[in-house]
Amino acid sequence: MKLSKKVWLIVGAGIIIALLAIVFTIYFQQVREQEELNERLDAATALSAKLEANKGDLEDELAQAESLLHTSQAEYPQEIHSIEYGEHIFEIAERSNLILSSLNFPKPKATKEGPVTYRTVSLSLPVSGTVADIFEFIDIINTDDRFASTQVNSVRLNVAGEGATISIIIYSYQR
Prior knowledge:
By secondary structure, the chain is α+β, with helices and mostly antiparallel strands. It is 56% helix and 23% strand. It has 2 domains: 1-75; 82-174, Ribosomal protein S6/Translation elongation factor EF1B (Alpha-Beta Plaits, 2-Layer Sandwich), CATH 3.30.70. Strands 1, 2, 3, 4 and 5 form a 5-stranded antiparallel beta sheet that branches. Strand 2 (109-113) and strand 3 (116-128) form a beta hairpin.
């Protein structure tokens, strides 16, 4: 059985139409994928610009934090020398007209908060004198540069006599 030219022409046209349909389908899929990739690229570019801006801000914050750390380290002593602090405390007590009964320096305790490690020394200062002199002593401790890293924790006044026990904490940083 011999096929006529018309049949071969129809079969050929059908194959060409099928091939064109396949090519167009593949082409339009490629176009859709390209559009999706372009959208993703635009979103990634916008995100990159935003992250780059945040990076600059974060670098500025880091520089400020490091500067603040160095300032704080300069304010706080690296080590607590009990002899020096003892001399200063006795000097301030004398200047305030107080009698300091005793002074014991315990070993510093290491304390860690986050990435910062610091040492503290807790002192109990039993003093005798008038209430005004006691408050003068506390004021000097709070304002003297040598005690910039010192905090007055509590003051226990002796109501019966003229005296008090003053609790202070001396802070120092540790590298």
